[in-house]
Design goal:
This protein is α/β, with parallel strands linked by helices. It has helices at about 15-30, 45-55, 65-80, 105-125, 135-155, 155-170, 180-200, 225-235, 245-250, 255-300, 305-320, 330-345, 350-355, 360, 390-400, 405-410, 415-420, 445-460, 490-500; strands spanning about 1-5, 40-45, 85-90, 95-100, 375, 385, 425-430, 435-445, 465-470, 475-480, 505-510, 515-520. Helices cover about 50% and strands about 15% of the residues.
Amino acid sequence: MDIIVSKNPSVWHNERLEDLDEVIKNICKEELGLIVPRVEFDIVPPQKMLEIMAYFYPTQISNWKFGRNYERLRTMFEKGAETLPYEVVCYGNPHRAFLMNTNKVACHIMTMAHVYGHCHFYHANRFLQLAPCDTLADVLSSASQRFQAYEATYDIDAVEEVVDLAHALSYNVDVERTETEQELKEKIFNRYLKLKKERQETSYDSSMFPDLISPMSGSGIILTDDQFRDMLKNMKPIRPTQDILRVIIDYCNLPDWVNDILETIRIYNRTVRPRYLVHFMNEGFATYIHTKVMNRLYDLDLITTEEYGDYIYHDSLVRSRSRLKLNPYNVAYNMFLDIEDRWNKGRYGDEYNECQKQKEKDAWNRPPSASPPSCSSSSGGGKEHIELSPGIRKVLEVVEVMNDWSFMYDFLTEDFIKKQGIYLYERQDIDNYPGLEGFVVKDTNPSKLRELILESWIYPSLPTIEVQSCYSGNIRLFCKYDGRELDKEYTEKVLEMIASVTNYSVSLYYEDEANEVEISAFEVNPKKTGGS
């Protein structure tokens, strides 16, 4: 392990941390079946930690919003949040993790174990593998230098305008898409040629079904190969897509420097977007791992009772309950514990679910009788097979295949809600204390709470907006209306930003029963954005 200390190195027992790191990796690999990649740890002062948290990466392009983030985090830190166990993990090859040098040694040991939980999740979870980020640090580092040159050449305000647009459309990205529009069209055309050749080589009389051989226009006219290629060329975009930046880059004829900024930030957005799909699980799993590791270190007498007490204190800060939201460090952590316990005791399947006697279900302890299969673990080299309990195997399986919504749907059971005391709270004024509010329990019904929580996870945080067309200086967007109203002021501001950067008029529609209704539109007069 590499541990790099910034300032006050005498405060830290670096050799001990390095020795414990080897033990932590061994526990994670041999006892918990985790993937244990190489991680470089940097111990940095609070200001550096807050900067990395605000910028999301140690290398980043410049933009005013990162300064805003930093000031917010600094204010929180100075007003009482300095005791929290801060950590940041930057996935790459190798991974880099940042720890704060004002924390105690026990807090660092806990955080190191937490980091290995995150790293396993990154390598194992199929959603995070949609857009791996091994080279993201290099992409951002080189982009930062280019963008500074653009600021000197085209003016900082012009660059900021383009960066702001890219950030405003950060959620409107297709995570699974890697091709440009032109590359996608070529892919479709080549697939058509291959399919046409295969069908012509069959024994069937292809003249009887010409539409299976050659594509047809909207009016039913069979197209030649060249006509089909031209038709694909004129489709802008090739099909409706929520990847708005992809369409702007490919069809709006912007200067090279503008496209470079938009493409770079699109790559960044596409890389980090999958993390939002699994954030709840990821934090809960990392907490689950650091809890097991710290308990094991204490059992092995590798941390003192005083250090274990320090760990319990910092862990309680992380896992504190909130009446306003579900804390993943608490709820998801306990869900993983519940999964482990249920699968160790056989509390799943038809026999258990159909049992009508609550006392019998509470006492249920029927571990699987069959010999469990081995689990593969890797530390970057060859894989080894490790015998794990049924509960831990199930936890690792869940980490591999699920996202936050499926996790909540399958494992946020009514029994779990009841045992954890999850309630619906409501703000109310406190009698005799004008201006003060308190919380009162509004509902404790596990069935209703489960339904309410799942409803909040069904839809993405933002409605789906797609580009339907981008022709002749006009961009037409379509909102898949799901009952939630768009923020009109914010929507119009984003449309204005698109129009300002692209010089295209922009309109946004949604379908209201049988008719399409225009939500907002922004007309522009052509102007020049800058040279290429």
